[in-house]
Amino acid sequence: MDLNYLHQSSYWLSYNADLKGGFFTAYLIIFSLLFIAGLAITMLTRGDFRKIAIKYATPLILTGILGWIYLLAQREQLPWLSTRLVLLLIVAKFLLWIFILLFWSARHVPKMIKTKKLEEKFNKYLPKTGNR
After folding, report:
1. Burial class, 4, CB count within 10 angstroms (exposed 0-12 / middle 13-18 / buried 19+)
2. Torsion sign across C-alpha atoms 17, 26, 55, 96
3. CB neighbourhood size of 16 (10 A)
4. How distant is the alpha carbon of residue 4 from its chain centre?
5. Can you give the pTM of this predicted structure?
6. How far is residue 45 CA from its own chain's centroid?
7. Phi first, then psi: what are they for 130, rounded to 5°?
């Protein structure tokens, strides 16, 4: 396999002719699943960690929508939106966003859990007030 073409700008800025038939369907399924997963996370998450879940759902939804736009541009053969570079940028943006969220979660989620446990422990000793 010759990979000399990868460093040429003409390869990245040319129309992606490989995206026909089975590949198109596979990309359509992948982008649709990303969108559906993002919506499911947004709609089904309840409680204190909803803010964190929405932070993870946003890149899924946005990548799904951008992927659909790319596939539409590919199908209609739009000159700049259907290049390989656009697909590379969409995937790179998604991966970078997820890595940033993982590092953020590694730093902040343990603090949030500790704060939540401390709050529950404090609320345990408060008198119960309820409607009778």
Report:
1. exposed
2. negative
3. 19
4. 31
5. 0.77
6. 16
7. -145, 165
Q: What is the CA radius of gyration of the chain?
A: 22
Say if residues 83 and 13 touch (Cβ distance below 8 Å).
yes
Q: What are phi and psi of 83, to 5 degrees?
A: -85, 160
Helix, strand, coil content of the chain in percent (nearest 5): 75, 0, 25
Q: Model confidence over 33-57: pLDDT tens digits?
A: 999 999 999 999 888 778 888 989 9
Q: How many residues does the chain have?
A: 132
Provide the residue-wise pLDDT of the chain in tens; the chain has 132 residues. 567 777 777 777 777 767 777 888 898 999 999 999 999 999 998 887 788 889 899 999 999 999 999 999 888 888 888 788 888 899 999 999 999 999 988 998 888 889 888 988 888 888 877 665
Domain ranges of the chain: 15-124
